[in-house]
Amino acid sequence: MSVILEFTLDADEFTLGQALSGPPTMEIELERVVPTGKAVLPLLWVTGPAEDIDAFETAVRDHPNVEAFRELDEVGDSRLYRFRWLNDPENLVEELAALDATILEATGADKWAFRVRFADHEKLTRFHNFCTDRDITIHIERTYTLNEDTERGHRFDLSPEQREALVLALREGYFATPRGVELTELADELGISRQAISDRIRPANEKVLRKALLSAGSQYE
Questions:
Q1: Could you tell me the residue ranges of all domains in the chain?
Q2: For 2-36, what is each residue's pLDDT tens digit?
Q3: DSSP assignment string, 49-112
Q4: What CATH number is given for 156-213 in this structure?
Q5: Strands (E), 98-206
Q6: Minimal CA–CA distance to 131: which of 157, 97, 95, 164?
Q7: Of 67, 127, 194, 211, whose CB is crowded by the most CB atoms within 10 A?
Q8: For the whole model, what pTM was predicted?
Q9: 114 within 8 A of 10, measured Cβ to Cβ
Q10: Burial class (CB in 10 A: 0-12, 13-18, 19+), 99
Q11: Nearest-10 crossing angle of helices 146-155, 160-172
């Protein structure tokens, strides 16, 4: 059964983080990892002021562990790069690839946050042992199976689309006071219209409230 691990670690704890250290004005997001033969080629987005990215790009190319750092695309204030490093037996990202783990999300600067899916608990344990054996300090935030996560949605009779929209709205501060994000911004992030995300959030919110407050008898009446 697949298991998800969410963890954080300091940039200096792993090769990628060490090579990609940059100013706090920038944000780095690992888009995906592409295995090519024995090599692992991460693709990553770098967002920030142009002058900072230019300096960052030069510093990365000059890093002793970096073999190649190539810009592939540019969109607004973000640039997409392909990254290749020299072989490193203690490379955390390469170990994840070797375990056939899927990096669902990875962002960072001086500290990185990862969300990774492993095929089973045995591979998760192997990854944990890899980190322990090499004194790589990771801070585990959460571990759960896909079934556990899916059941949270089923408990409130939410569709996958409703749950996705509701979780995004909650995380981005849509329900906060003052509001941290507008409905149009949430719609843009999901690639749907403002009306479409409204049609997901409103009924989803009602389902959760009904289940939480009105189900299982008259406890709150």
A1: 3-145, 156-213
A2: 888 989 998 888 877 888 877 778 888 887 665 54
A3: -HHHHHHHHHHHHTSTTEEEEEEEEEETTEEEEEEEE---TT-HHHHHHHTT-EEEEEEESSEE
A4: 1.10.10
A5: 102-108, 111-118, 139-145
A6: 95
A7: 127
A8: 0.60
A9: no
A10: middle
A11: 90
